[in-house]
Every structure is written in C-alpha cells, then in structure tokens.
Amino acid sequence: MFGTFTGNTTNMHTNIDVFVHQGSKGFEGCDYFINEEPAKADFLSELKKGFLETPKVISPKFFYDELGMQLFGKITETPEYYVTRVELELLENLGNELSELVGKNKVVIEYGCGSSRKIATLLRTLNSPSEYLAIDISPDALKETTGTIASAFPNVRVGGLCADFYSSSFVLPREVGGSKDSRLVFFPGSTIGNQEPREAQKFLENIHNVLGVGGNLLIGVDLRKSKDLLEAAYNDQMGYTADFNLNLISRMKNELEIDISRDAFNHLAFYNEEKSRIEMHLVASVDQEFEIDGTKFTILKDEAIHTENSYKYTSEDFETIAVNSGFKLEKCWSDPDDLFSIQYLKAV
What we know:
Blueprint: E1 17-20, E2 32-35, H1 40-51, H2 66-76, H3 82-102, E3 107-111, H4 117-125, E4 131-136, H5 139-152, E5 157-162, E6 183-187, H6 197-211, E7 216-222, H7 227-233, H8 240-256, E8 265-272, E9 277-284, E10 288-292, E11 295-299, E12 304-311, H9 315-324, E13 327-334, E14 340-347
Parallel strand pairs: 2-5, 3-4, 3-6, 4-5, 6-7
Antiparallel strand pairs: 1-2, 7-14, 8-9, 9-12, 10-11, 13-14
C-alpha cells in the first residue's frame, strides 16, 4: 500500500520497506517508517486454519481494515460503549501523578494505535516525551495517528511500524531511540481482553522481553460488571458493532474472493458469566458451502463462527497475570463506578 520513499535511508531491513529521514519528515510526518504489513496470504492462511477448528474461528485482529476502523470509531462514540469514554476520562485526570511516576523524556510505544485521541492525551500528560512509535496492523490507522501526532507534537520524534505485534517473533526496530528504562509501552482499550488469560500472560511476557528490565507498561484493563451493561456495550442500538462483526464476511468475499454471503449471517454478542467474557459470533441463517484455498467447507444453519472474546477482570486477577509475566504493579487507577482500570507496570 505504501510506495517507495526517498531521502537519507539507513538501517535497511531485509524484505521490509524502511525509511529514516534526517531533517524533513517523511510519510505522514514520520521521522522513520517501517512496513512489515502482513500479506493477504496471512489472512487467507489464518482464516483456513481457523475454519478447520471446532467451532470455527476468525481472529479479531482482522476486524481492522479501513472500514473496520471507521466502524470501530463509531462504536466508541455510542452511549452504550463505556470503554473509550471512561479510559479517556481517566487519562485526562491522572495528570501530575502519572507524569511523576513515568518521568521525563520517555519513548512511548503504542501497541495498536487506532484513534489518536488517547495517545494525544497521554503525550500531553507526560513530561517532555522524546519519541512516539505507533504500531498497528492497519496502515490506515498509522496514517491517521502519525500525521495527527507529528502535527500536534513537533518536538517529539515520530515513528510508524506496520506490523503484527501479537507475533511471538515481534521485536522493536533498531530505529527506536532511548535506553530500555526510558521506554513506555502503551496498550489501551482493554485489547488485552481479546486473549485467553494464558495467552494474555504469554503476550505480556513478550512485551517484557521487548522492553527489557526497567521498561514500563501502561495498560487498559476492563473490569467485571453487570451482565446488562456489558451486553448493551456490544449490541449498540445503532448496529455499528453488528456491522463491525459482519465486515469480516465482507473481507472474505471482497479480498479473498470466497463465495460467501454477508446477508446469510447475523451478529451475536453475549456475556459468558462462567468464563467472565463477552463473546462475539457470526451465526449462519442458512446452510452454506464454499472453498478456502482449495479446501471445501460447510456451515450449517444456526452454526456460529467465533470472532472475539473480551475478558473482564478484577484488578487483583489481572495483577496476578502481570506478576507471572515478569511485571510489578506500580499503580492502578479506576473510575468511581469501577467500570475500567488503567494499570502502570514495571518490568523486573
């Protein structure tokens, strides 16, 4: 999706588009940009693997194409979806307390940049942040965020990395500045809840390895609450969450040319109290047959494709996972209604 860049290019990566600009900024205001965007073949292979499971699954990371990003932005503005609203309020209210904890001249690394609102709030809160690296699987998200941040914070070095940070082989590019103890990973939005608890622990271990001892993690964690409130958040009256979920079928048809009908599926989201998680599914309304990469599949009427989990934790339960991943909890903040928490962790 990105073209060739000109300028003073250094630290070239094998089979990866990289530019590093000295002086004038390049792609969307970036001082450096690295393109490790997964190929469509990755979507195809992961989709096929997921459809061989029982029940069939599609990874939630494939929600975020251009339309998916637009729909998610609309979801965050619905009255039912409390997560973004409450997290932003918390970030805005942390002020000097967070700034003193984090310290000066931090290199802020955001996993899953999405909208620029949260990172802009965080950068305004911190004391003279020196650098910001946006990481996302969606080039459109990177374009929006890096451009906004570079314009709003001209004294901050801005980098962009289009990559799958969930990969166990993920490492920070060598273009990232600062010592290990100057780095702060920002992982907002309770995205950690999309993973099974054991997967979340492994993912935090990977972040620990990326940061090294002395680095810090600021992470959003959604908390347990009433079933009614949770189910309303994932079934908004405007239907944006349903469209967001169904867009996976559109991607299968449009990008991979799979003969499957979006109109033959319905959105389903409910709270699984036993597992303390919201589950999202796509439920077939008719029998269907189609091929994925030469393999024939059948979906029967009322069969569900599992597309997302969103685990809800107590603060204590999540602290246990963090500690088992090599982190120490330095501070935990939550709103007065205990809907959502932000936790500040140190790699030890």
